[in-house]
Design brief:
77% of the residues lie in helices and 0% in strands. By secondary structure, it is mainly α.
């Protein structure tokens, strides 16, 4: 499994996927405070044209909360890009037949699955933390992060949502034969959870609740509102990995 982890790292490095993702998440981390910082300047620039249209513009002040609002608007884009570039983690191996000689020489299929799952989770953790800490650092420099309540839990919730999505990707990669099919499966489950979340009785128990970390920062929700969704996301992720291991054993390579 250690050898396969090293192989995964070398593949991501040589294909440039890791470099692209690092650049994307770092840019997102910089954009969050930058957009918040530029908002007063942009409004001031547009004030004259707005005044001519009869719209009165007052002075605008920004703080760290505006930057965190941008963070929760932009981080879904980062997760989508991560899923797009990771969707071929298994399917490319099937199409090229590179797993056949490895498994034939005695490498356990479960070791292959575990290595890929661990690598995806570690990659998501690294990328997400890069974005988060860049935003946090700039916010601390320009303003004060103390305005954001329950910041560690809010950060952890979206990270867990990404882990849940990665577990879904691993599961669908063991039953699908192409990247579009994997993305369709993951997207279908995510959309289904979102639609169920429109019903107040189901919303607290769905992993999609973890995307609402901003409500924690703003004090709209309390930590107790997220405990059920945290348990659901963790349980579903574990179930997906277990089911993926069973399916991968029977997968025709």
């Amino acid at each position: 499994m250690k050898a396969f982890l090293k192989k995964e790292w070398m593949e991501w490095k040589r294909t440039g996927r890791m470099a692209v993702l690092l650049l994307v998440f770092l840019l997102l981390g910089i954009m969050n405070p930058a957009l918040a910082k530029l908002t007063p300047f942009l409004i001031e620039t547009l004030s004259e044209s707005l005044a001519e249209s009869g719209i009165a513009v007052t002075a605008v002040t920004v703080d760290a909360m505006d930057s965190w609002i941008q963070f929760y608007k932009n981080i879904p884009m980062g997760l989508i890009i991560f899923m797009l570039l990771s969707s071929g983690s298994f399917t490319m191996e099937y199409q090229k037949g590179t797993l056949v000689p490895i498994v034939a020489k005695g490498l356990s299929r479960r070791a292959v699955l575990a290595a890929k799952a661990i690598f995806l989770c570690c990659a998501w953790t690294l990328l997400y933390m890069c974005c988060f800490w860049v935003t946090y650092g700039y916010n601390a420099y320009f303003w004060d992060n103390g305005i954001a309540g329950h910041l560690p839990l809010a950060c952890w919730c979206y990270w867990l949502f990404g882990i849940w999505a990665a577990a879904l990707l691993v599961f669908f990669s063991t039953v699908a034969d192409s990247s579009p099919q994997v993305l369709l499966g993951v997207g279908g489950v995510a959309v289904g959870c979102y639609l169920f979340g429109l019903f107040p009785k189901f919303a607290p128990f769905l992993p999609t609740r973890l995307m609402e970390g901003l409500s924690l920062l703003q004090g709209v929700k309390v930590p107790e509102d997220f405990y059920a969704s945290i348990a659901a996301a963790g349980g579903m992720a574990a179930l997906c990995l277990a089911a993926g291991a069973v399916c991968f054993e029977k997968k025709r390579l």
